[in-house]
Amino acid sequence: MVDRLAAEGLIERRDHSTDGRARSLYLTPKGKVASDQILASRDKVIAEGLSVLDPDELKVLCRIAERVLRNRLESLEQAYRICRLCCYEGCTNCPIDAELLERGLDPEANDNA
Question: What CATH number is attached to the domain comprising 31?
Fold first, then answer.
């Protein structure tokens, strides 16, 4: 899959910043456009699905979702697996980052993993 994405010009491989044995993957400008389109489609489906809820119900759902996400977090390394499908620009109050900070862990420390 990685080879196909690279061949399509959607990602590029770079040396890992701290591990000489590993390579990191980065979106190219073309990959960023494709990613933005996919996330916009996802957001539309989610918005349509949640449109049946009134504002009070959405608040309850958000509190429950935050509690579930925070409870599922096992480690700093696992944080990426939970957040990988998140819209980073739209997630301004990340419950995973908050949980990591409460546990005394630095969420930024996992950015290069």
Answer: 1.10.10.10
